[in-house]
Amino acid sequence: MDNPRGFRCRRGSSLTEPEVKDSVDEYMSPDILHVFREDRAETPATPLAGKTSSDSVASGSLLSFPQFQRLPVELRYLIWEAAVPEPTVVPRTWNNSKFRYNLQRNVPAVLQACTESRGLLVAQPQSAETVTAAPKYELVQTRGREDEGVYMDFEKDSIWIYRGYDINEAEVAAYANLRSLVMNWGLRPCWVDSAVDDGVRFIRKFPKLRLLTLLVDFKEHGWPDPSTLKGLRRLKRTEFKRIWALVRAAFRRAELDDPGWTAPSLHIVHRTENWCRQEAR
């Protein structure tokens, strides 16, 4: 096809800097073009040609981006923040090998990337009051167990306690910044009809708590199987309202006893095999 303007197709690496600047779109900053330009030698034009060292470089470049450190620091920070995982519900599980409960979570991948990502996203004790737009993970460790811990972003992540709610003071201190807590309705001896006040006393140990999510497992409570889906929904809705009223009444009693305490928001969620953890955020 004839080129009406008489332009020739040329490799980006053969263009001079003025030519590149004149041809780029006005919305791309010329100052960053050098990051994307390639100054490699010509590669074979046919698939039958033998592989060269430049081929190995090209295939390796698909798995890495060695120019990342040449990006402006502000852009790198935005990339690290975008790589932060979604809010997570971290279960507190029983560890058979250590014969105790602990939080179960892998280290987020973004924190394993490099020193820069950890420096941006992991809160340091000496800069705890520093205001920053980046999410800040904390290394949560229980006193006397400095050899283990998990990274938590208490602004977004939740802890799920589904058994063994009797937490010692050292563990309570480690969760001091907890904002969102998930527990199972029916967890004895606190979240049952006759002991809701005990459950409220437990959550008052976390002064920064803003959301309590109670999971209701209807199978564990021996509910009859309704003949219709509509009947099942009606039963669940009625039970949710009853539990909500019980817990809210206990909240009001606690607020009257201690006017300085503010009850957290309350969510009642039907626990299924894949219950919606979005509602625990």
Helix content: 25-40%
Class per helix and strand makeup: alpha/beta
Low-confidence stretches: 23-49, 276-281
Mean of the pLDDT scores? 76
What does this structure look like?
The relative contact order is 0.08. The strands form 2 sheets. The chain has a 6-stranded mixed β-sheet with strand order 2-1-5-6-7-8, covered by helices on one side. The protein has a two-stranded antiparallel sheet with strand order 3-4. It has helices spanning 17-23, 33-36, 53-61, 73-82, 115-121, 169-174, 196-203, 229-257, and strands at residues 89-95, 100-103, 138-140, 150-152, 158-161, 180-184, 211-216, 265-270. The protein is 28% helix and 14% strand. Helix 7 (196-203) links the parallel strand 6 (180-184) and strand 7 (211-216). With 281 residues, it is α/β, with parallel strands linked by helices. The chain has 2 domains: 12-71, no CATH class; 82-280, no CATH class. Residues 65-159 form the 2EXR domain.
